[in-house]
């Protein structure tokens, strides 16, 4: 993050995660441990806030000492020393001074000042290469959480979340926070954590909420209710914007609206290139309530229905009947277009399917996607039966995530076959010829695409994960975001290899990762031979118009050259050149 200051306007630069402009006051929510609200105090309240802080520290120390004594009585060993170390943390003068300073100079309430200082401190600790020190972060979190709890034993002076339109600023947001956001009130959001390909960012784009992520360290400075602008195109959060800045953004917003209206006029038009190659532009959805948006977008079907938001958002996984109702509704409403329902992709940065007994050191390489489904056959069976039931109401396909090899494909298909037999016996209607596809998102699957292609009806390339696994760059880690390059020659080769294997086996290949919605890359994907692009509903009109502006033969020639390129930037430049030539107005 960089920060530039004029008289009173402050600009924070992060990573643009979802395009759009929002102008509204900020509301800060602090997440992580205990998530206290932030509110502004007056100068006169400074001594009182300091007193509240000391009081919370005192109570915490007393509790820790009691715990130590109790543990000593019970076990008599060294375990109790841990609490002594915790007490010492509460006496660390550098932390105490920072909190006192934040209270008096930023006029922040004590619990938020403490929270923000501790978040920064923890973040710094997490970056220390020393494993022992890094592991102490959970101890520090524990103590911090205890202190925060001890604030709340007194009268509640916190402000409540505003009902009015606002910009949300948070340390981090989970995908389910984003999914449950009140979209009428939250005009945009900015987080310190996260990256463009996190599910939080993907949801923001689906919902059309302007968003910025990776505003490293900004939250500590931001005061609730300050007027602000989110520039989701450039990744800027502007606090206390001047009149000129506000006017500039109002104009920009109008211009973008104009482009949007002209795209709307083309909605539903065929998406084929100037030389007649047809591509399907379909939409990705996470929630059934996005259907209206999808239909308005002119998408020709759903290329990826991420069912994890239906399955994991409540207290328990919905039963077969409830799942069947949701899937059938999507199939019915999208008819005559087809709907590709992806089976549960739990894990990674999404919620786990059940509480894990221990945290996974590498969740993205862990218990995720099809691995979870195959390990929980009863849950998998219910989902497959529900998908099959939906296939009676409209064109439906099933797709499996995180496939790494043939055995997983065989096991998954066996489940589909068994469920088909069951439904047949039960005389429940379904589509026997329901297409079965797999995500190509693990490099091994792309490399072995020739082995997998004869087994399935289609491939859908999940570039979000394919890039992360190929380049070994965590898709949600802002510290390595620079290395996350969709046009890395390694990635392009894997995409090409996948398409070639599909063509040799007479099946089609789509792309449903975020790369599909990036119109700078449409010439490249088109030229490589992709036949379907499944994108966030907001991107559908733009991607459609990009396709209509391009010539397939020109793109194919460029993609051929791109395969010889040695650097990501070169490949990006080649694709950009055609994008600029054919649709400069569409580019942000
Ligand atoms: C992908 O990995 O590209 C993809 C579409 O799936 P998800 O983002 O849900 O992991
Ligand atoms: Mg994926």
Description:
This protein is α/β, with parallel strands linked by helices. It has 23 helices and 17 strands. The chain has a nine-stranded mixed β-sheet. Strand 1 and strand 2 form a beta hairpin. Helix 1 runs antiparallel to helix 2 and helix 12 runs parallel beside helix 14. The N terminus is likely disordered. It binds phosphoenolpyruvate and magnesium ion. Magnesium ion binds next to helix 18.
Report strand order across the widest sheet. 1-2-9-8-4-5-6-7-3
How many individual helices?
23
What is the CATH top level name of the largest domain? Alpha Beta
Structural class: alpha/beta
Could you give a short account of the major beta sheet? 9 strands, mixed
CATH third-tier fold name of the largest domain: TIM Barrel
Q: How many β-strand stretches? A: 17
Straight-line N-to-C gap: 21 Å
Estimated radius of gyration:
26 Å
CATH superfamily of the largest domain: Phosphoenolpyruvate-binding domains
- Poorly predicted spans: 1-7, 154-160
CATH hierarchy: architecture of the largest domain: Alpha-Beta Barrel
- Strand coverage percent: 5-15%
Bound ligand species: phosphoenolpyruvate, magnesium ion
Helicity range: 40-55%
Q: What is the overall pLDDT average? A: 88
How many separate domains make up the residues?
Answer: 3
- Overall geometric form: globular
């Amino acid at each position: 993050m960089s920060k530039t200051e004029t008289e009173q306007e402050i600009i924070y630069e992060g990573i643009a995660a979802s395009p759009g402009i929002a102008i509204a006051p900020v509301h800060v929510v602090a997440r992580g441990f205990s998530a206290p609200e932030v509110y502004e105090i007056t100068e006169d309240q400074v001594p009182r806030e300091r007193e509240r802080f000391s009081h919370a520290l005192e109570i915490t120390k007393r509790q820790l000492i009691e715990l130590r004594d109790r543990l000593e009585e019970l076990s008599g060993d060294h375990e109790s020393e841990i609490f002594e170390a915790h007490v010492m943390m509460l006496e660390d003068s550098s932390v105490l001074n920072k909190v006192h300073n934040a209270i008096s100079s930023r006029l922040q309430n004590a619990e938020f000042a403490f929270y923000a200082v501790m978040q920064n401190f923890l973040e710094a600790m997490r970056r220390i290469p020393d494993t022992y020190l890094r592991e102490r972060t959970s101890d520090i979190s524990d103590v911090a959480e205890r202190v925060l709890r001890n604030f709340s034993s007194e009268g509640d002076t916190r402000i409540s979340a505003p009902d009015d339109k606002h910009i949300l600023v948070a340390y981090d947001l989970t995908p389910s926070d984003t999914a449950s956001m009140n979209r009428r009130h939250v005009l945009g959001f900015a987080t310190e954590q996260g990256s463009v390909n996190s599910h939080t960012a993907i949801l923001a784009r689906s919902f059309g909420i302007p968003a910025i992520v990776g505003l490293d360290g900004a939250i500590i400075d931001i005061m609730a209710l300050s007027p602000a602008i989110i520039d989701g195109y450039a990744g800027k959060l502007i606090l206390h914007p001047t009149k000129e800045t506000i006017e500039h953004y109002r104009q920009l917003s109008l211009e973008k609206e104009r482009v949007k209206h002209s795209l709307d006029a083309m909605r539903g038009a065929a998406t084929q290139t100037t030389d007649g190659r047809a591509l399907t532009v379909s939409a990705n959805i996470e929630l059934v309530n996005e259907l209206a948006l999808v239909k308005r977008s002119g998408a020709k079907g759903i290329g990826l229905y991420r069912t994890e938001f239906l399955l994991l958002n409540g207290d328990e996984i919905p039963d077969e009947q409830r799942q069947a109702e949701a899937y059938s509704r999507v199939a019915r409403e999208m008819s005559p277009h087809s709907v590709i329902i992806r089976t549960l992709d739990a894990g990674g940065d999404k919620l786990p399917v059940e509480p894990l007994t221990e945290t996974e050191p590498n969740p993205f390489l862990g218990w995720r996607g099809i691995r979870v489904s195959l390990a929980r056959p009863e849950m998998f069976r219910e989902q497959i039966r529900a998908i099959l039931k939906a296939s009676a109401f409209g064109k439906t396909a099933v797709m499996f995530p995180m496939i790494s090899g043939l055995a997983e494909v065989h096991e998954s298909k066996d489940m589909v076959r068994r469920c088909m037999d069951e439904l047949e016996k039960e005389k429940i209607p379904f589509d026997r010829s329901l297409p079965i596809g797999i995500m190509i998102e693990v490099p091994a699957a792309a490399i072995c695409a020739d082995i997998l292609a004869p087994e399935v009806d289609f491939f859908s390339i999940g570039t979000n994960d394919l890039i992360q696994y190929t380049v070994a760059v965590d898709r949600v880690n802002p510290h390595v975001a620079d290395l996350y390059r969709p046009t890395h020659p390694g990635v392009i080769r894997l995409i090409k290899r996948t398409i070639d294997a599909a063509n040799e086996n007479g099946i089609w290949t789509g792309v449903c990762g975020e790369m599909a919605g990036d119109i700078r890359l449409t010439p490249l994907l088109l030229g490589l031979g992709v036949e379907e692009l499944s994108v966030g509903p907001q991107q559908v009109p733009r991607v459609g118009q990009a396709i209509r502006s391009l010539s397939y033969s020109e793109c194919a020639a460029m993609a051929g050259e791109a395969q010889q390129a040695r650097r990501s930037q070169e490949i990006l430049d080649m694709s950009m050149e055609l994008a600029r030539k054919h649709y400069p107005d569409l580019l942000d």
